[in-house]
Write a structure and sequence with these properties.
Layout: H1 11-33, E1 42-43, H2 45-52, H3 56-65, E2 71-73, E3 76-80, H4 81-93
Antiparallel strand pairs: 1-3, 2-3
Length: 94
């Protein structure tokens, strides 16, 4: 059902009201998206295995068991450098 409301607001004020309402709705969504650091460095499987000092099959096993987290980007798997460094320190302490 379509609700039609007629108003006597000037065009510019109507535009501002609409813009403000849209911003109020979009801002929380955009803040959630921007929480990840813009400087996040993603590594390929080969770069990640070199950083960790393990073979590609071992990296795959660690990904499957949850020791490290892989992110599928299109058809590729990438790893966050910061998360790998944290995982590496946890693995070394065990």
């Amino acid at each position: 059902m379509l609700n039609i409301i007629f108003t006597s607001l000037p065009l510019e004020q109507l535009k501002n009201e609409i813009s403000n309402e849209i911003l109020d709705k979009i801002t929380p969504i955009l803040q959630g998206v921007n929480k990840s650091s813009p400087n996040t460095e993603f590594l390929t499987r080969k770069e990640a295995s070199n950083l960790l000092g393990v073979s590609l099959p071992t990296l795959l096993d660690w990904t499957k068991t949850g020791k490290v987290t892989g992110y599928r980007i299109a058809s590729r798997v990438r790893y966050k450098r910061s998360e790998l460094e944290n995982s590496l320190s946890q693995i070394r302490t065990k």
